[in-house]
Amino acid sequence: MDYILKLWVLIRRSIDMITDCWPYKAAAAGLSTLICFLFGGSEIILLIVMVFVCLDTLTKWVAITKRYLIDQGIQPTTTALLCGFFYAWKPGYLSSTALKQCWGEKIFTYGTLIVFAGMTGKLPEILIAGTQLNKAIAGGIYAYIAMTELFSILENFQDMGNKKVAQLKQYFCTIVSKITGTSFSVTISNKEDKKNS
């Protein structure tokens, strides 16, 4: 029974991760699908996803290390961040349990989406003007994952104290609101607060 509950929590968090800021992600996925349809290259978008996953992990570690250094009364310089990373492996900061949970959620969510994207290539070919639509759909799925990681990276920069992220968010909100004709806003909040609520 405990495994079923853990699986349910994992599925719920995966759905939350994917549906967070969905208009931006859907717009990027649609644009990516169009670009992949016209020019090909869904594999390049998958490479971008892998780079974004690495950047997300790195920026999260830096944000947590910076918080640890500030809590210890140490000025977070570049050298202190590099050295502080090793000292920040404490409960409440960096921990292998939190790392396993985060990576487990990402592997489950992104693995499912990547398998689905791969399956679109195995479906009967849908040709429009001599171009295979299936690969374009896979590119859209990869772009959706990349946008999920991009927003996670933005959250990490905001956790590091970067005030420019709020301006970037507002810029995105303005564009989506003008395109859709509705009022849309997004709040990038601390991931730890989301998990604790």
From TrEMBL:
Keyword Membrane recorded: yes
Primary location recorded for the protein, binned into one broad class: membrane
Subcellular localization: Membrane
GO cellular component: membrane
InterPro entries reported for this sequence: Phage_holin_4_1
Membrane topology: Multi-pass membrane protein
One of the Pfam families matching this protein, by short name: Phage_holin_4_1
Protein name: Bacteriophage holin family protein
